[in-house]
Amino acid sequence: MGSSWRRTWGNVRTFIGNSTGGLSGGSNLASWAVAGTLAYFLWIKPSQDLKRQQQERAAAAATAFPDPFRYVEKQKPIPDSQDSGLIYANKKKANDSEAEA
Known about the structure:
single chain; transmembrane; mainly alpha; membrane; transmembrane helix
């Protein structure tokens, strides 16, 4: 029974060693680092850049063509003829009466 798990463990180690190209130790780690770096710059980074460019184009297109169903105020606001802007205030008459006195 003891040799069974040893044989299984040896088979797993052999499989991993063969799948990594037979490299072991520092050279194995270095080769994986090089492969990962190449994969990043050849596949991952270009796809991220493409996505970012598409989002920027979509945002620019959205601002260039405003929503046709957006509400736009057509009337100009009526200006308030009072100085204070309050309906109940009567500042002009108060200033006139002070100037007369």
